[in-house]
Amino acid sequence: MCDTAIQDLYAEEFANCFGCGRNNQHGLQLKSHWQGDECICRHTPKSHYTGGVPGFLYGGMIASLIDCHGAATAAAAKSRESGEPISRFVTASLNVDFVKPTPIGIELEIRGKATEIKNRKVTVALQLFAGETLCATGKMILVQLKN
Ligand SMILES: CCCCC/C=C\C/C=C\C/C=C\C/C=C\CCCC(=O)SCCNC(=O)CCNC(=O)[C@H](O)C(C)(C)COP(=O)(O)OP(=O)(O)OC[C@H]1O[C@@H](n2cnc3c(N)ncnc32)[C@H](O)[C@@H]1OP(=O)(O)O
């Protein structure tokens, strides 16, 4: 696994996101790492992010985890393809399927893979696991910010 998180390579002005900005002291500060041919993020949500049924995670938080990790996956995949430094991608489209209730209290693992890279547009497929259980999947389209 690459030691440096993708989010730690974002330019300073793009490092303030609630989900993954290293400079956002009130945010989740998610970290994503390239491993093999995919990108991995691990996070244990706090219990107050419940969706109303104690012990289970709010769907909006699930979408947020997928969203921010998808952006990191797109940035890493594009950088690996082009040989250029990590750049910043924003979400143009986010589709989440909630497959099983997601438990709170154990570490979640989100796995992302780029399925298509076309100029500034990257399509990413994601899976969110709680242990061995696939709880949610995501499909995203991300667009690289213009310089
Ligand atoms: C991430 C930090 C950002 C900090 C802000 C700093 C500077 C501001 C600079 C730019 C503003 C950018 C982002 C907005 C600000 C904050 C977002 C915070 C981060 C998030 O919270 S993130 C979740 C919310 N996110 C958004 O707030 C995005 C709103 N949106 C847009 O800002 C534009 O919509 C954008 C940039 C996505 C694209 O605009 P664009 O002009 O750069 O590019 P363009 O439209 O040419 O698309 C290029 C190729 O993507 C295809 N494409 C586009 N949209 C598609 C879709 N929906 N489905 C399928 N394909 C799509 C086209 O078809 C074309 O493909 P092709 O080349 O093959 O034709």
Automatic annotation (TrEMBL):
It is found in: Cell projection, Ruffle membrane; Cytoplasm; Membrane. Gene3D superfamilies: Hotdog Thioesterase (3.10.129.10). It is a peripheral membrane protein. It catalyses: (5Z,8Z,11Z,14Z)-eicosatetraenoyl-CoA + H2O = (5Z,8Z,11Z,14Z)-eicosatetraenoate + CoA + H(+); dodecanoyl-CoA + H2O = dodecanoate + CoA + H(+); hexadecanoyl-CoA + H2O = hexadecanoate + CoA + H(+); decanoyl-CoA + H2O = decanoate + CoA + H(+). GO terms for biological process: fatty acid metabolic process. SUPFAM superfamilies: Thioesterase/thiol ester dehydrase-isomerase (SSF54637). GO terms for molecular function: thiolester hydrolase activity. Its EC number is 3.1.2.2. GO terms for cellular component: cytoplasm; membrane. Pfam families: 4HBT. It is an enzyme of class 3 (hydrolase). Residues 55-133 form the Thioesterase domain. The keyword Membrane applies. InterPro entries: HotDog_dom_sf, THEM4/THEM5_acyl-CoA_thioest, Thioestr_dom. Keywords: Apoptosis, Cell membrane, Cell projection, Cytoplasm, Fatty acid metabolism, Hydrolase, Lipid metabolism, Membrane, Transit peptide. Belongs to the THEM4/THEM5 thioesterase family. This is Acyl-coenzyme A thioesterase THEM4. It comes from Desulfopila aestuarii DSM 18488.
